[in-house]
Amino acid sequence: MALASATTAAATASSPSRLVRRFSSSPPPPSLLPLAARPRAGSSPRACSYHRFVVQWKGRARALLGGISDAGASESDDDEEDALREGQREGEGEDAVEPTAAAAELERWDVLGLGQAMVDFSGMVDDEFLKRLGIEKGTRKVVNHEERGRVLRAMDGCSYKAAAGGSLSNSLVALARLGSSWSAGYPELKIAMAGSVGSDPLGSFYRAKLRRANVHFLSKPVKDGTTGTVIVLTTPDAQRTMLAYQGTSSTLSYDSDLADLVSKSNVLIVEGYLFELPHTIEAIKQACEDAHKNGALIAVTASDVSCIKRCYNDFWDIVGNYADILFANANEARAFCELPSTDSPMSATRYLSHSVPLVSVTDGVHGSYIGVKGEAIYIPPPPCIPVDTCGAGDAYASGILYGILRGASDLKGIGLLASQVAAVVVEQQGTRLRVQDADRLAECFAHHLDSLEFCSDV
């Protein structure tokens, strides 16, 4: 199915600007919508479903925040250690780097992500380790400062890695690496993230790691704040146990700096995990309102089934009124629709596409679906040998966004690109798309723009 009826895009890579027309859809009768998505009494239908808008961007010289780039290199343990040392030096200084000042020279950002900024500590442990600390295997638990310290102290002597983690940052890093491939012949995409980190060394580490991946973290550190962390404990049976300490990452305020960033962005992505944080819903709503007024595309990631269930009405308030793109997996899509687990992902995709102009639903090894105007297009999965499925959905989302930003005009082609990006990540250990793989995918996509055959060349 071609996007010609739903979106207009320049077909050539040399064009200095591209037009992305809003994916339009006719809403179904209110009786077919989930309760939270039904129009309020006296309200008019969502105007953004009926008009077109333009997203423009121009080629600009590479202007990297702090002058650090990892183009042409892959992540390594040395990179992480360097970033930690850099974070420690930055955190120890009295004058913190003002990220927004260096970034202010840019007229617009192609993509701005709004999400949780968490540092991941990932380590291999045995079942006895979990029993000794009284941790239930395979669960996700929110811990306080003391509990986090107790676990980290117990991990002394264990082998573990630190990374600038989070679902949104995975997607933004992959998109930045796809968008900075010189071999593809496109102007570089300018990718940024806003969130909340503390003024501690971990906050500086987080910013440094994103800088190295060409993602600009633009929020100022919270003075005396503590950066959130997620401890990921993997046992020999490949089960993951996660302990989340939210710290400063649980706070988000919509101040004048963030409002200015939103007004200068072509695409705003809101991470679903933000919906379960205290006092963030109003900030999300204000960001979406300003993004909508400035003609930006708005994308929302579902993030987690339990998060959707706990924040169902808030999710639908934002998704039903503002979202142009919704990213979800099969279970999350069914949760949005309040459908039983026996219903197919295709049914959920069709259902959601009546309320959201473009819906992306992944279903693991079974493939994925893209929904527009009540129709669902099946995207077959590419052949791959899975090594680590963590981060597959994040990578898929980056592929969808990259295809749209580069002006692809065929939905199935965009879906195939997204599937290939996800497959590359699944075939490696870790959640990040590597630079060399991003170069290969972006170059191949450029040679086969709007062709369904590009994936076979990767």
From TrEMBL:
PROSITE patterns, sorted: PFKB_KINASES_2
Entry keyword annotation includes Kinase: yes
Keywords, comma-separated and alphabetical: Kinase, Transferase
Ranges for region Disordered: 1-45, 69-98
InterPro entries linked: Carb_kinase_PfkB-like, Carboh/pur_kinase_PfkB_CS, PfkB_dom, Ribo/fructo_kinase, Ribokinase-like
Pfam families: PfkB (PF00294)
GO MF, one example: kinase activity
Domain Carbohydrate kinase PfkB: 160-433
CDD domains given in the database record: adenosine_kinase
Extent of Low complexity compositional bias: 1-25, 33-45
Nucleotidyltransferase recorded as keyword: no
Stated family: Belongs to the carbohydrate kinase PfkB family.
The protein, known as: Carbohydrate kinase PfkB domain-containing protein
Gene source species: Panicum miliaceum (Proso millet)
